[in-house]
Amino acid sequence: MRVTERSEVEKYYQNADVAEQYITKRFTDPLNVIEHQRQVDLLNKIIQDKKCTAFLEFAPGPARVTAELNVENGTSIESSPSMIKIAQQRMKEKRKKWNFVLGDVFKLHNDKQLHKKYDLVFCFRFLLHFKYAERKAIYRQAHTALKENGHLVFEVMNKNTVLPLRRILGKRRYFVYDKLYNKKEFIREMEENGFQVVALHPVLTHFWLQTVLSRPLKMLGMRTMAEKSIALLEKFLSTQPYEWIAVCRKQQRTSELQKTSETRKE
Description:
Layout: H1 6-13, H2 16-26, H3 30-49, E1 55-58, E2 75-78, H4 81-94, E3 99-102, E4 118-123, H5 132-145, E5 146-158, H6 159-169, E6 180-181, H7 183-192, E7 195-203, H8 207-219, H9 223-233, E8 243-250, H10 255-263
Parallel strand pairs: 1-2, 1-4, 2-3, 4-5, 5-6
Antiparallel strand pairs: 5-8, 7-8
Helix pairs in contact: 3-9, 8-9
């Protein structure tokens, strides 16, 4: 099964079984535990550094990241009732206040709850699942929702590292479409859609070595050592991480930028 179109992506993530297994299936190996923690830590730091007080999240899933944030009273829009149910339960266990809205990210204007302006729009494991026409629509929604000089934050997969991995493991393992980028391509795409990339924070900086340390040590009962070793390697920067957390500042959109954006193809 290949999940490549918008309708297929939405249907896949609305499946109750996918929602139930999402965190345990994808974020339990030591490598993924550190990836998750890096994403959470970076987002918390961005929120603090940018002094954000109004937050909007696209597609929180089961609140994997949301439940770990150091802030409350944000809003998340999610199209899957099963994901929202799990997310609400996780936030309840954390005793955190957060507003989850059942809705469509592509049609934010239809929901009166989402008509305010935000300092920060963020998402994880969402934007990368869509082809350019859909990503462009999501950028437009984020641009409209943000205050002047507000920021859009999400993860960007590094083509130079991820593509060789996926060629090895094959389409049976990675059957949901993911957009992969090099830096120049990503920066150009954001500029075409009214955003300036102000930071790219690397995550899993030494991916291949970290992969070697992850599952084998876990299978030997050395999970703690694996996690500590992988986390230690994050302190040493590299030019080819597994992914970046992108911080993109809202810019004024011009008719010329919009025209260029609309003529691009995937």
